[in-house]
Design a protein that fits this description.
By secondary structure, this protein is mainly alpha-helical. It contains eight helices and no strands. The chain has one domain.
């Protein structure tokens, strides 16, 4: 999300974008059936402001909540959340097991195979791209670039290879 903030001209809101990305699944592990519903309660109890709560909860729009993504950051989070899962899945079956050398055409090929990463909703990805006014290829390309920018940090934080 921080990469997107810089790319889209929101460098001054870098931490906000990063925090939304970091916290967007805060309720998923404990409350998978109430994802994006329990998030508001958890974030409020931690002192989060309403803008962050709206951003986090809006990525469940049309799935579990009726909180529509309004800000460009919320639309990016909505669109990229599902897509990152598909991109990671496509990356880990490659010899490099990395997003550093994956290309849009490779992701598109896997995207078209509905059995591949079946849990990643193509409908949500497409609705998110439409919300942003982007073609699917543009969303995939930007998401790959965003993931490349932090892959090493994610691996270090997890203490393991992908």
């Amino acid at each position: 999300m921080k990469w997107y903030a810089v790319d889209l001209g929101y460098s001054g809101d870098l931490e906000f974008w990063g925090n939304a990305g970091l916290l967007h699944d805060i309720d998923f592990e404990m409350y998978p059936d109430q994802h994006c519903i329990k998030a508001a309660e958890l974030l409020r109890s931690g002192g989060a402001d309403e803008a962050l709560i709206h951003a986090v909860c809006s990525h469940g729009y049309g799935l579990t909540v009726d909180i529509k993504p309004e800000h460009e950051m919320e639309k990016v989070l909505y669109a990229a959340d599902e897509l990152t899962g598909l991109v990671w899945a496509a990356a880990i079956i490659r010899p490099s097991k990395s997003v550093k050398d994956i290309e849009v055409k490779s992701v598109k090929k896997k995207y078209k195979s509905l059995n591949f990463a079946a849990g990643c909703s193509r409908d949500v990805i497409e609705r998110g791209a439409a919300m942003l006014g982007w073609e699917l290829d543009k969303l995939i390309e930007k998401t790959i670039l965003a993931m490349r920018s932090c892959e090493d940090d994610v691996i270090r934080a997890c203490g393991t290879e992908i």
